[in-house]
Amino acid sequence: MLTQIDILLFLDCFRNIDVFLQGLYYLQVKISENAVPYFFDSILGSKKFHNLYPPQILDDAYATKIFLLKYAEEVVKIMETVVFRVEIDPNAYEFNPISIQFELMFTDLKGDLSPNSVQNYLTAPPAESLFTKVGEASFTITSVFTGVNQMIYATYLDTFSSSLDVSVHIFPTNYKFTQDYIEELFPDSADSIYEDKINTVFDRIVLPLGLCYNKLAKLLYPNDESALISLPMLHHSDIEPDFIHKIINRSLFSRSIGTKVKTEVALALFQEIQELAAMILSLKHDFIEYLKTNPGKIVHKLMKEYVTLMDDRWGENIIRETFNEKIPIYSGNKDYLIDIETAKKLRTGANFEILDYFHVVDNKLFKGADENTILFETIFSKEKVNNPSISTVSNTSLSKSRHLIVLVHGYLGSYIDVKMLQDTISNVYPKGIFLLSRANEGSTNGSINDMGVRLAQEIQEFLKVNSSIHIEKISFIGHSLGGLIIRAALPHLAAIKDKCYSYISLACPHLGCLNNESILVDAGMWILCKIKQSLLLNQLVLSDAEDQRHSIIYNLSKEPGLGWFKKVYFFCSSQDSYVPYHSARAEVGSSIIEGNTIEYEMASSILSQITGSFHRVNTIFAVPSLEVSSLIGRSAHVKFLDDLQFLNILVFKYIL
C-alpha cells in the first residue's frame, strides 16, 4: 500500500534584503522522491517588471515567473500556488523523508539589462539558458501523514541576500492498494477480526485522513466548528484527542460498524477512506480558490504561529537563571569551563533528538543534536523578567514607527562582518532599519575615543538624512572592539538617550585584554604592541598611560551611556580566548582578589550605571575541538558573526 501525498506550496513574497546584483531572477522548486508538479496558479501583480515571463512546470520542477530586481529592499509579490504529488511507502518514510529545494536563479544578460535586451531574451531565449543557480535553501518534511500547514522562510545569504516566504500545506489524499485491499488491510488474518486489530488499522490508515481534513478546515474556516468532522475516539492513548479538535461519537470504530467479519470490516474501512479522500480533495479545491482572493489571512496566521514556535524552539537552547539583586562584580569560585562540559552533555542527551516543533525543517538551522549552540544566561533585574511579545513577521507591510539597529564591527573589520547578522534580523523583523557602521573601516589601530567620535558623527548624520522616518527606539550591537566603540560614542549621543532600547556586546573586552586565558593570544598581543606600535592594542592592555587609572579603557568605564538602555546584554564564550572571558562579562574572576584592583574598579563603574535588566550570556558553540582556530580560541570569537543558529537565537530571543 502506498500513500498518495499532495504538497501545496503558496509562494507569497520574495524580498531583496541586500542583493548586490541587478538582473533577472526566478525561483525553481524541486521536491525529492519523484514528486512531480501537476497544478499551478498565479495572481498577476501590478508591476510589469515583476511579471516578465509566466511561471511554468519544467519536468519534475516548478519555475516561478521571471522578475527584474532593481532596488534595495525591493519586495516582489510572487503570489503563486503549485501542487506536487508523490506516492510513498509509509513504512519506509522515516528512513527516507521528503525534501524541498528552493533554488534562486539569476542572469544579468551578460551585463545588458536594457529594455530591448530583456525583451529580446524573453521573446526568443537562446537554446542554452543564461540563468545560473546562485542560492539554495532546503527543507526536510518530517511528518506528512496527518497533514501539515506551516510557514517557512527560504533564505539566501552573502551576495544574494534575500528571502522567500512560503506556506506549506501537505495532504495525504488517498491510498493506493497494490493488491486486493482486504488482504492489504488485514494480511494473514482470520475471517473474524479482533476489535483491537480493527481499531489499530483505523488509527493507522483512516484517522490520519480525518486529522488532515480537520487541520485544513480549521485553517480555512477558523470560526466555524460545524466545518469539522466527527471522528471516533482514538484507540491508542499516545495520540492526544486535542489533535482531533472535535469528537462527538466516543465509541471505538470497531463498535460503530457492528461487525467483525473480515470482508465487511475491510469494506467499511475502504469506504471511510474513499469518503475522506473525496472530502479532502474538495476542501483542497476550496482552499486553492480561497488563496486567490484572501492569501494574506492564511499567511498572516501561519506567520504568527511560526514566530511563536521559533521563540519556543530557541528557548530549548538557553539555560537561564534570574536574580532580583544587585549585579555581582566578583564571579565567585565557579569554573567557567564547566559550561562547555554541560553543553556537551545536553547535546548527547535525548532532549534535542526528540524536539519536533516543526514538520517542515530548515536544514541550515536544524542539523544534528550535537551541532546545537547552547547559551547559559544569567539575568539581573529589579523587576520580574517576562518574555516580551514578539513582533509579527511580515514582508509586505511596515508599521510607521521603526527600530534603528546600529551594527559595529571589530578590530581590522568592515561592515561586511556584520552583514550576515543584519540579513538574519531583516528576514523576520521588518520594523528594523539598519546602520552598518563604516566610519572606522581602516582606522581601528587608532584611539578608541577617536573611533567613538567618528561613530557618533556617523549616527547623527544617518538620523539627519532619515529625519522623515519615525524612529521609535535605537539598539546597538557591537562585536569585539565594536562594543567599546559604541560605549565611546554614547557620551556624544545624549540627544538620543530617551530612544535607547538595548545594548548588545558580542565578545567585547569591556575590561581590556589583561590576564588573557590564552598564552598564545597573550604573547601575540605583546608582540603586536611592540612591532606594530598600535595605539589601540596598547590601550587594550592598559599600557597607554604610566598609571593604568589614566588609561583610555579605565576612563571609558566611567563614561555615561549604559544607564540609558532598558536592556543590556554582555555575550561571551568560554571557548573564546581572543577576549578574556571575565572581561567580556565585566566581572572579576576568581584569580583576582576582590577589592581594590583595576579590573574590579572598572567593572564596578560599568555595572553601577545599569538601571535596566542586565544579562550575562555564556555562549557555547559546537566547535570541532581539533580545529586550529578553535585551539587558540579564534573559532568561537568569529562564530558570534557567522553561526546561523546563534544569530537566529539572538534575533528571536534577544532582539525581537
From TrEMBL:
Domain DUF676: 400-583
Transmembrane segments: none
SUPFAM superfamilies for this protein: alpha/beta-Hydrolases (SSF53474)
UniProt protein name: DUF676 domain-containing protein
Organism: Stentor coeruleus
